[in-house]
Amino acid sequence: MDHQPPRPAGSAEPAQWLIDRVDLWDHQHWPTGMVGAGFGAYARLLHPLDDHPGPLTWATVARANSRILHPSAWWEKIKSSASSGRGRPGDPMRGDLNGWALKALCAILARHTTTAQACCFAVWEGWGWLHDHDSPASTITAYYAPDGVIPDIQPPQPAPAQWRLATSGPTFSLPGRRYHLFKGHIDAAVRIGHWVNEDFFIPQSPSFFWPADTPGAWQPKSTTTPPSSAVHVNLSTSSAHPR
């Protein structure tokens, strides 16, 4: 299995088009403030609810609470303490699209670029796991040994350095945020995250990513308010990007 994450970009220049378009403080014009104005179409991916066993969707919760799930609906406005008769579902993750949903999204977006092998990924510098590479991990292990014999079980080992996201590359800034910039195959989006040890990986979806051949052809953005991902699609792209 390939665990290689995207590598640092050669420069921050590929992000300039994004810097010129996005204003993260423009909450009055969502989602254009988050992903930029002037594109042909926008889609919104509602982050799945943390509810097991599923499926429980935003639409199910909205109906149970006599709410309308309109295109700009906020989770806080449709939920209640007693949704669907099963109690309150777990809130959707903020700023992070579930790994399985991100993988499905990447498979769709890959069909709309000629350079799936060369995409740009922006990762917010504020994630704590980006800064703990030099911190020794501690492991607490408990054993059940009714006969008094402790089994010979080795603690998990640190993940190889090449599996970890390198933060030595370029960064760029948007209002109130700074991001590390990486490049790689679109499939590498699901390999961004925190390796606690060689057996335990916590994925983290990129804050932004886009194809290198036509910046602006598509570009997802995970947000925390509301907890969803906005995807813009530029309908004026060439025939290499089907409409």
Write up this protein:
- The protein has 243 residues and is of the alpha+beta class.
- The chain has a domain at 7-47 and 93-134 and 161-233.
- It has helices at 16-21, 32-35, 58-64, 75-78, 99-109, and strands at 7-8, 41-46, 119-124, 171-174, 177-184, 193-197, 200-203, 208-211, 218-222, 228-233.
- The strands form three sheets. Strands 1, 3, 4, 5 and 8 form a five-stranded antiparallel β-sheet that branches. Strands 2-10-9 form a three-stranded antiparallel β-sheet. The protein has a two-stranded antiparallel ribbon with strand order 6-7.
- A hairpin with a 5-residue loop joins β9 and β10.
- The chain starts with 6 loop residues before the first strand and ends in a 10-residue tail after the last strand.
- Mean pLDDT is 79; it is low at 82-87 and 235-243.
β-sheet strand percentage: 15-25%
Q: Stretches where pLDDT falls below 50 for ≥5 residues? A: 82-87, 235-243
Main sheet summary: 5 strands, antiparallel
Provide the helix percentage: 10-25%
Mean pLDDT: 79
- Spatial separation of the terminal alpha carbons: 34 Å
Radius of gyration: 20 Å
Q: How would you describe the shape?
A: globular
What's the helix-strand series? EHHEHHHEEEEEEEE
Helices and strands: which structural class?
alpha+beta
Instruction: Report the strand count.
Output: 10
Number of helices: 5
